[in-house]
C-alpha cells in the first residue's frame, strides 16, 4: 500500500482514485476519501452534487489552470499527478493553484516524482505526497527539510530572504 507523507508525518494512503462514475458506490462516498478527474467532477456537479461535495480533484500537469479556477474553493483535496519525474508542469500548476487561486486545502503530489524533488514540491505548495518506495520513507521525510534558508519567495514562505532579515 502506498504511503502518505502529510505535514511531515507518515501514514497510509487510503484515498480511492475513481476513474468512472460507476465506481462511486455509496460505500465509497461514505467511507473513504476519493478523487475524481476534472471531467468526472464536472459531471458529478450537474448529476450528483452531493457526491461532488465530497470528492477531491485529480489533475495532471497539462490541465488548463483556467478550467479549475472556479472549482478550487469547492474541494478540500487536489491531487496533481506526475506522469514522469522529468515533467515539471505539476510544479507550475501547484504554484498557480496556491498563489493565484488562493487555495488553502490539501495539495497532494502523486505519481513519478523522486525524493530529490520533495523539498521543491513543498516550496510550490504541496502539503502531502504519496510515496511508493517504502524502503526510503524516513529519508523522504527528512528531505522535506534539505535546505534551511531560501532566497526566493514561494508558497511556503511568501517573503524573500532580504525581507525576512
Q: What do these coordinates show?
A:
Helices cover 32% and strands 22% of the residues. With 165 residues, it is an alpha/beta fold. It has one domain: TIM Barrel (Alpha-Beta Barrel). It has an eight-stranded mixed sheet with strand order 2-1-8-7-6-5-4-3. Helix 4 links the parallel strand 5 and strand 6. It is globular.
Chart the SSEs and their pairings.
Blueprint: E1 3-6, E2 9-12, E3 16-18, H1 26-31, E4 34-37, H2 38-47, H3 49-52, E5 55-60, H4 65-68, E6 77-82, H5 89-100, E7 106-111, H6 118-124, E8 128-131, H7 137-142, H8 161-164
Parallel strand pairs: 3-4, 4-5, 5-6, 6-7, 7-8
Antiparallel strand pairs: 1-2, 1-8
Summarize it:
With 165 residues, the protein is of the alpha/beta class. It has helices spanning 26-31, 38-47, 49-52, 65-68, 89-100, 118-124, 137-142, 161-164, and strands spanning 3-6, 9-12, 16-18, 34-37, 55-60, 77-82, 106-111, 128-131. Helices cover 32% and strands 22% of the residues.
Amino acid at each position: 500500500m502506498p504511503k502518505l507523507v502529510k505535514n511531515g508525518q507518515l501514514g497510509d494512503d487510503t484515498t480511492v482514485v475513481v476513474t468512472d462514475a460507476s465506481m462511486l458506490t455509496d460505500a465509497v462516498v461514505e467511507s473513504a476519501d476519493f478523487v475524481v478527474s476534472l471531467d468526472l467532477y464536472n459531471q458529478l456537479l450537474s448529476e450528483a452534487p452531493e457526491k461532488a461535495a465530497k470528492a477531491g480533484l485529480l489533475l495532471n500537469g497539462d490541465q488548463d489552470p483556467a478550467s479549475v479556477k472556479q472549482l478550487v474553493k469547492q474541494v478540500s483535496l487536489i491531487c496533481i499527478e506526475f506522469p514522469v519525474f522529468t515533467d515539471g508542469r505539476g510544479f507550475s500548476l501547484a504554484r498557480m493553484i496556491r498563489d493565484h487561486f488562493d487555495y488553502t486545502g490539501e495539495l497532494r503530489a502523486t505519481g513519478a516524482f523522486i525524493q530529490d524533488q520533495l523539498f521543491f514540491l513543498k516550496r510550490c505548495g504541496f502539503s502531502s505526497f504519496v510515496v511508493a518506495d517504502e524502503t526510503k520513507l524516513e529519508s523522504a521525510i527528512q528531505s522535506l527539510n534539505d535546505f534551511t534558508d531560501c532566497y526566493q519567495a514561494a508558497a511556503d514562505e511568501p517573503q524573500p530572504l532580504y525581507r525576512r532579515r
